[in-house]
């Protein structure tokens, strides 16, 4: 289906029309959407400003009223009178003030109550409100807020009135004594927000939008569906809270909303309007749908017109296509009639010329084929005779080439083995050199071992002498210690006898009385010296006993040392005998290795001559084989060339025959 030019034309034009019309529709839709957005932004900001102005003006009126009351001399006089007559409770000025309050409330129905609170805790309201006896106005939040900002009118947060169920806001102002500038009390009123709600709800918002009012805590004071609810957790409130004016987009229940807002000067509340963005662009969507409908109708009409034009263009092309198919089947007698002078008419004219030229060409080719067939037959006969002669020569040369190649191969194999033998001989020669060097090192090492054994034997003898000397010294030390013990024993006996004599002398001196006191002192001193000598002798005896124990242990160690030295002496002698035997064996091994080295050197000299001769034979054999192969290759190339000529002649003859058969298909 898609191979027909008529179908391609219809599809191409239809696609082009569809893309163009859809593009125009989309551009128009987005342009209208942009324009609507701009208009809504502009009108919403203006509407928000107007609503803010109305609300501010409404609140400002009541704020100004409270401010006026705070400066009213009648209220000031009333509060002064209360302060002066605090204990008597006389208030002659209150009826005048109450009358004024009632007049104002009659004119402004949204005012729920007007009140005055004195610093002396007196509290009056219009109309009268039943309050507890101990009611203290100075403890109320609105009183504290007014006192903290005496120069400002203070608005409290809205709250729901229990009796009406509607939102009420309190506005208060401090009453000051103009003479002393002291606080006298607070005046204020409770304002019902029903009037403010009416103002906001009566504001018309296009595109099914709505107005709202939210206090500083996020409570919806005026809202079509969320009134009284806390909106501070909503996604849009964070931006409203942190900015004085602007707009924000957010999603609620799956629908996109756009909010425009302003901040009230009196209270800081947020006022504005909210739209569903889907409602904003409904008109644009309707227009877009209308454009798409018109575009669809235009595309259908375009397809019909395109089909008619495509059929007009395709019809002569289809007729020409049938004639071309007849030519493709071999009928060169066809001729197409020309009915137009456009590109299709020109194509038809050139097609007729092409058929005439092909008819003339085939007639000429048919004559040439007959001449080619005769020449090909003669050339085939000559080629066959030449091939037979060349094949005989080629077979003889091939036999010579094979013999030369085998000889070269054998020579090359012999050369490889000779080279392998040469490398092995060189490896043996290297190993012999290495063995000679190792034997030399072994001989030198053995000699060094013998020298060290001689030195070890000498040191062992010297060590034995030293051990004997130490043993004799220890024996003498033991005998001296015994002599010291005997001397110490004698000293101990002398000390004991001296102590006894000194005791006897002391007794005799006591008997002598006064004349023997000096002798008694001397005897006491002698006794003390004897005691000290006895103690020192005991210490010496203990020390000698310890030395004696250590000496006995040292004697045992010396006996072990002498035994070990004797064993070491025997081991050194045996090791020296082993080194001497190894020395004799290394000497015999060196002689054998030197003999092997001489034989290997001789073989190494002879192998060089053998390898050189084999390499010469191999080179000559390779040259002979190469020359034979070149002659054989040349002969084979000649035979192949003749075969190629013969094959070409055969192929030419076949092609001529095929061409003759193909020409027969054409009807001239």
From TrEMBL:
<dbReference type="GO" id="GO:0007165">
    <property type="term" value="P:signal transduction"/>
</dbReference>
<keyword id="KW-0807">Transducer</keyword>
<feature type="transmembrane region" description="Helical">
    <location>
        <begin position="9"/>
        <end position="30"/>
    </location>
</feature>
<dbReference type="Pfam" id="PF00672">
    <property type="entry name" value="HAMP"/>
</dbReference>
<dbReference type="Pfam" id="PF02743">
    <property type="entry name" value="dCache_1"/>
</dbReference>
<comment type="similarity">
    <text>Belongs to the methyl-accepting chemotaxis (MCP) protein family.</text>
</comment>
<dbReference type="Pfam" id="PF00015">
    <property type="entry name" value="MCPsignal"/>
</dbReference>
<feature type="domain" description="HAMP">
    <location>
        <begin position="311"/>
        <end position="363"/>
    </location>
</feature>
<dbReference type="InterPro" id="IPR029151">
    <property type="entry name" value="Sensor-like_sf"/>
</dbReference>
<dbReference type="InterPro" id="IPR004089">
    <property type="entry name" value="MCPsignal_dom"/>
</dbReference>
<keyword id="KW-0488">Methylation</keyword>
<dbReference type="InterPro" id="IPR003660">
    <property type="entry name" value="HAMP_dom"/>
</dbReference>
<feature type="domain" description="Methyl-accepting transducer">
    <location>
        <begin position="382"/>
        <end position="639"/>
    </location>
</feature>
<feature type="transmembrane region" description="Helical">
    <location>
        <begin position="290"/>
        <end position="310"/>
    </location>
</feature>
<dbReference type="InterPro" id="IPR033479">
    <property type="entry name" value="dCache_1"/>
</dbReference>
<protein>
    <submittedName>
        <fullName>Methyl-accepting chemotaxis protein</fullName>
    </submittedName>
</protein>
<keyword id="KW-0812">Transmembrane</keyword>
<keyword id="KW-0472">Membrane</keyword>
<keyword id="KW-0145">Chemotaxis</keyword>
<keyword id="KW-1003">Cell membrane</keyword>
<dbReference type="GO" id="GO:0006935">
    <property type="term" value="P:chemotaxis"/>
</dbReference>
<keyword id="KW-1133">Transmembrane helix</keyword>
<dbReference type="GO" id="GO:0005886">
    <property type="term" value="C:plasma membrane"/>
</dbReference>
């Amino acid at each position: 289906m898609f191979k027909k030019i008529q179908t391609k034309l219809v599809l191409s034009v239809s696609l082009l029309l569809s893309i163009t019309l859809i593009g125009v529709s989309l551009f128009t839709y987005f342009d209208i959407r942009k324009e609507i957005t701009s208009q809504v932004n502009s009108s919403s900001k203006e509407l928000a400003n107007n609503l803010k102005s109305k609300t501010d003006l409404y609140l400002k009126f009541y704020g100004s009223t409270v401010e006026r009351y705070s400066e009213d001399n009648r209220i000031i006089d009333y509060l002064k009178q209360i302060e002066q007559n605090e204990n008597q409770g006389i208030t002659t000025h209150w009826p005048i003030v109450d009358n004024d309050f009632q007049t104002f409330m009659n004119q402004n129905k949204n005012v729920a109550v007007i009140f005055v609170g004195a610093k002396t805790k007196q509290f009056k309201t219009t109309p009268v409100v039943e309050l507890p006896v101990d009611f203290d106005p100075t403890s109320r939040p609105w009183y504290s807020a007014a006192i903290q900002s005496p120069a400002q009118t203070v608005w409290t947060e809205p709250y729901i009135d229990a009796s009406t169920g509607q939102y009420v806001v309190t506005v208060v102002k401090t009453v000051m004594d103009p003479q002393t500038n002291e606080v006298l009390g607070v005046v204020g009123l409770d304002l019902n927000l029903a009037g403010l709600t009416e103002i906001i709800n009566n504001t018309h918002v296009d595109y099914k939008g709505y107005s709202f009012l939210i206090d500083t805590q996020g409570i919806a004071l005026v809202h079509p569906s969320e009134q009284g609810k806390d909106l501070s957790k909503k996604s849009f409130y964070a931006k409203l809270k942190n900015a004085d004016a602007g707009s924000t987009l957010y999603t609620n229940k799956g629908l996109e909303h756009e909010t425009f807002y302003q901040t009230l000067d009196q209270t800081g509340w947020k006022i504005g309007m909210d739209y569903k963005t889907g409602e904003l662009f409904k008109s644009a969507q309707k227009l877009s749908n209308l454009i798409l409908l018109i575009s669809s109708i235009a595309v259908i009409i375009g397809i019909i017109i395109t089909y008619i034009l495509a059929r007009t263009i395709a019809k002569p092309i289809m007729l020409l296509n049938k004639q071309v198919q007849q030519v493709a089947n071999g009928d060169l007698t066809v001729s197409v009639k020309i009915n137009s002078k456009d590109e299709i008419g020109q194509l038809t004219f050139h097609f007729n010329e092409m058929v005439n030229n092909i008819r003339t060409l085939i007639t000429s080719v048919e004559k040439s084929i007959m001449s080619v067939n005769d020449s090909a037959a003669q050339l085939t006969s000559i080629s066959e005779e030449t091939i037979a002669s060349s094949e005989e020569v080629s077979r003889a040369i091939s036999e010579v080439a094979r013999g030369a190649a085998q000889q070269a191969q054998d020579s090359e194999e012999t050369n490889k083995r000779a080279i392998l033998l040469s490398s092995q001989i060189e490896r043996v020669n290297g190993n012999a050199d290495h063995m000679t060097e190792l034997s030399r090192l072994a001989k030198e090492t053995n000699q060094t071992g013998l020298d060290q054994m001689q030195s070890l034997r000498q040191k062992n003898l010297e060590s034995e002498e030293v051990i004997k000397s130490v043993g004799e010294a220890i024996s003498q030390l033991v005998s001296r210690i015994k002599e010291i013990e005997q001397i110490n024993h004698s000293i101990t006996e002398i000390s004991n006898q001296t102590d006894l004599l000194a005791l006897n002398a002391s007794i005799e001196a006591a008997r002598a009385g006064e004349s023997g006191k000096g002798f008694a002192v001397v005897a006491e001193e002698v006794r003390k010296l004897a005691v000290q000598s006895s103690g020192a002798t005991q210490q010496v005896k203990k020390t000698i006993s310890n030395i004696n124990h250590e000496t006995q242990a040292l004697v045992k160690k010396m006996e072990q040392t002498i035994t070990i030295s004797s064993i070491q002496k025997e081991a050194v002698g045996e090791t020296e005998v082993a080194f001497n035997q190894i020395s004799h064996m290394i000497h015999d091994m060196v002689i054998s290795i030197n003999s092997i080295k001489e034989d290997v050197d001789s073989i190494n000299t002879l192998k060089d001559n053998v390898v050189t001769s084999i390499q010469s034979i191999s080179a000559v054999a390779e040259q002979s084989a190469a020359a034979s192969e070149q002659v054989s290759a040349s002969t084979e190339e000649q035979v192949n060339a003749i075969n190629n000529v013969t094959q070409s002649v055969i192929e030419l003859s076949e092609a001529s025959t095929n061409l003759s058969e193909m020409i027969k298909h054409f009807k001239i």
